[in-house]
Design goal:
It is a single chain. The chain has 66 residues and is mainly α. It is built from 2 helices and 2 strands. The N and C termini lie far apart (31 Å). 3% of the residues are buried. Strands 1-2 form a two-stranded parallel sheet. Helix 1 (11-23) links the parallel strand 1 and strand 2.
Length: 66
Amino acid sequence: MTGVLDDNVFFQDSVRLVQRLIELEKPMFDIAIYPVEPHGFKQPSSWLDEYRRIYKLFEQELKPAQ
């Protein structure tokens, strides 16, 4: 998750990271880009999307074995 207007973690660095993951043939990664957000999100819609993604990740990857 990265805000395009982030002045702490620059957007171009996030893009470079994605390119490197592709080059290394990493099979599973996601990126969420928030065009109007700085480092600390401000828009309620961005917060909602962010936490939905985190919840989904936890549900998929951290479910206890049955």
